[in-house]
Amino acid sequence: MRDAQWPPSLWAESRRSFDSTRVDYARRFDVAIVGAGYTGLWTALYLKEFRPDLSVVLLDAVEPGFGASGRNGGWCSGLFPVEIDTLESLHGHHSALAMQRAAIDAVDDVGRYVSTHSIDCDWKKSGTLTVATNPVQESRLRQTIRLEQQHGLNESDVRWLDATELSRRVVVEHARGALFSPHCAALHPLKLVNGLVDRARALGVEIVGGFRATAINDSGVVGLIDGQSADITAGWVVRATEGYTSALRGEKRSVIPLYSYMVATEPLSDEVWSRIGWAGRETLAEGRLMVTYAQRTADGRIAFGGRGAGYRYASRVSPDFDTDANVKHRIVATLHELFPATRDAAITHHWGGPLAVPRDWHPSVSIDHATRRIAAGGYVGDGVALSHLTGRTVAAAICGHDSPDLSLPFVQHHNKRWELEPLRWLGVNAGLRLPVAADALEKRTNKPARRLTALMDKLLG
Ligand SMILES: Cc1cc2nc3c(=O)[nH]c(=O)nc-3n(C[C@H](O)[C@H](O)[C@H](O)COP(=O)(O)OP(=O)(O)OC[C@H]3O[C@@H](n4cnc5c(N)ncnc54)[C@H](O)[C@@H]3O)c2cc1C
User: Fold this and answer.
1) How far is the C-alpha of 114 from the C-alpha of 397, rounded, in Å?
2) For 3-72+190-255+360-407, which CATH superfamily applies?
3) Which of 214, 310, 323, 376 is the most buried (most CB within 10 A)?
4) Domain ranges of the chain
5) Residue with the nearest Cα to atom 12 of ligand 1?
6) Is 237 within 8 Å of 374 (Cβ atoms)?
């Protein structure tokens, strides 16, 4: 549990001291969960809620919230990483819509949980805006709205705000309007982790830090604690290791880690906020192809994130990758383009972390009833709310409940494995370069970069 391993994030300032439980290795647990991010925590919480008598141990290589759950952009959103038409072609209309609705409902499920248990995580649900700053972005976003409405969502789920309506909420340079969905809240990611840890402990979940699992086998979890081998025996084992999964035995090609990065400004002055507005703290993205995401934090900063970092050969993850000067530069430039009033504000924090990308970008809960082993996750960048749905689903499967969650098509969805290296490295990195090139081309020509986006889908989708 080296301090230096934690990324220098804005959220890490709310990190608390963590007392690891001492485990009795001779004991047999009913359930062992590997990974104490949101997925592991929600799973543990629902297990204890459904069956208080179960013994549950939650193991983390570092501490709860060390992974993406303590580093993310704080969008608790109803987004599902697979577009609704693709979902429909995979699972049929009814199941695709049920999946999308469950993702949307997860936002209010989290909201109810934090309010019932008085978890202070700066929760504010005002929806999300994807702002068009050029005509190509506008037509693509309007097309997304049409598509989502054709496939079963409606005006109250997703609609267009014209430039005037948008400017009443937030003033974005060159904005032509925005896609608006009410299904999103802004929150402080690590404060949510802290609240879930308190609740899990109160319910009797044993949380062990510094336990690095190396393999999951028939008797439980094989791992190392302080360099010594330390095996945990358990009936059920849940793998919730997301972007770090490739380090586990046999999991090299299950998901790839892709790094996403963020910056935070200093708290902005009242004068700057009077020019920007944004009193509702809606989460905000730009309609460019390169993923961007921002929130106005409860303490009056802008936390702004973006993807676009390269993929590391053989799915490597390391604290050395927690910052990236090139991506930082690109994120800050985008922040200044969208909000020129922030140009003089200091950038006080920069950090990043790995998210997990399955070959088809489709999250899944894979349950092996024979061996009692479960793997859960693969949310790409949409795991804040989805991990709640996942945790409840995993707990229902273990407890043998007849839950509607278990009929959702992410349960037992089969993800193809990623290609062997060096093909994986070549294909992913070629695909990752394209959004930046396509955005530049669209801005210059005012025409959609169809060939580049088709190639992007082929390489990454
Ligand atoms: C910079 C960034 C911004 C993001 N922004 C958003 C956003 O705004 N909205 C959104 O919905 N999603 C966002 N995401 C994604 C979201 O944060 C994740 O999908 C979600 O947190 C995943 O939760 P998890 O519990 O499955 O995984 P994690 O939080 O990554 O937890 C995995 C845990 O497993 C532990 N672990 C790993 N390997 C082992 C091992 N071998 N042994 C023991 N423990 C192990 C790790 O230490 C870690 O604590 C973002 C991600 C990043 C990186």
Assistant:
1) 24
2) FAD/NAD(P)-binding domain (3.50.50.60)
3) 376
4) 3-72+190-255+360-407, 420-461
5) 382
6) yes
